[in-house]
Specification:
Layout (H helix, E strand, L loop, with lengths): L4 E7 L3 H11 L3 E2 L3 E3 L4 E7 L4 E7 L5 H8 L4 E9 L2 H10 L11 E2 L5 E5 L9 E5 L1
Parallel strand pairs: 1-5, 6-9
Antiparallel strand pairs: 1-6, 2-4, 3-4, 4-5, 7-8, 8-9
């Protein structure tokens, strides 16, 4: 059901600083920042040959990501994103297997303009999983 790894998301307290580290220190190609108000985050993508790193910063103290950074003040891995061909079919199969889909269970538009869903980390060895339809 799941396909390739789309990205690993890292929560950061300052996205400009983190983007510069990836760009200037590691020599990576980094996208311009993009705000995703529906998700409460600002993102940049670090392009790698086989996947991407998504750097996330909360847009406000009310962002769900702000709570993560309260517990991880330096930042850290927030979630992994896997590609799926049909997000609704994947959701239905996962729910039948007992996995919990976060939110209202309906896909939302993600940073790449494609439908995404998140799965409860307690159902996947403590890892928050994002599914993105490709």
């Amino acid at each position: 059901m799941i396909g390739r790894l789309n990205h690993v998301a890292i929560a950061v307290p300052d996205i400009a600083v983190a983007a510069r580290q990836y760009s200037e220190v590691l020599g990576a190609i980094v996208s311009p920042p993009s705000d995703l108000p529906e998700h409460g985050v600002r993102v940049v993508f670090v392009e790698l040959g086989n996947t991407k790193i998504e750097l996330l910063e909360p847009l406000s103290p009310a962002s769900p990501l702000a709570g993560f950074l309260e517990n991880n003040v330096s930042g850290g891995i927030h979630h992994v994103c896997y590609e799926v061909a049909d997000i609704r079919a994947a959701r239905d199969r996962l729910k039948q297997g007992g996995a919990r889909v976060l939110g209202d269970g309906e896909p939302k538009t993600g940073a790449h303009g494609k439908p995404v869903l998140f799965l409860h980390p307690k159902d996947f060895s403590g890892t928050l999983i994002e599914l993105e339809q490709v």
